[in-house]
Amino acid sequence: MPSSPLSPTEEAVLRTLLSAEGRVMSRATIARDSGLGHLSARRTDSVIATLRVRLGEDSVVTIRQRGWMLTAVGTVRAREALSWSV
User: Fold this and answer.
1) Is the pLDDT of residue 3 over 70?
2) Taking 60 as the threshold, does the pLDDT of residue 50 lie above it?
3) Range 8-85 has CATH code 1.10.555.10
4) Sequence-separated (6 or more) residues with CB below 8 Å from residue 45
């Protein structure tokens, strides 16, 4: 669990991943749905890396050449983190 509240960007990306309910989301979709579309495409990668550190390496899985998705454990941790950051 995060030791401090999520940043607005982390929260937006986490909410986007959580809304996918186990489906893979592409970088472009995450960026668009999280409001990061105006930033560098690599910014999404950076936020995902930060979320892995904060939620646990096993929380977000990379699906090669497709995107990312939350694992079952990641979904539980994401809900906990989002309720804690409110």
Assistant:
1) no
2) yes
3) no
4) 27
Q: How far is CA 58 from CA 9, 28, 48, in A?
A: 20, 22, 12
Domain parsing of the chain, residue ranges: 8-85
Nearest alpha-carbon partner for 12 in 40, 48, 38: 48
Helices (H), ranges, the chain: 8-19, 27-34, 42-55, 72-85
DSSP-based three-state secondary structure for 51:
helix
pLDDT at 5: 85
Residue 86: is its pLDDT beyond 80? no
As a whole number of Å, the CA-based R_g of the chain is 11
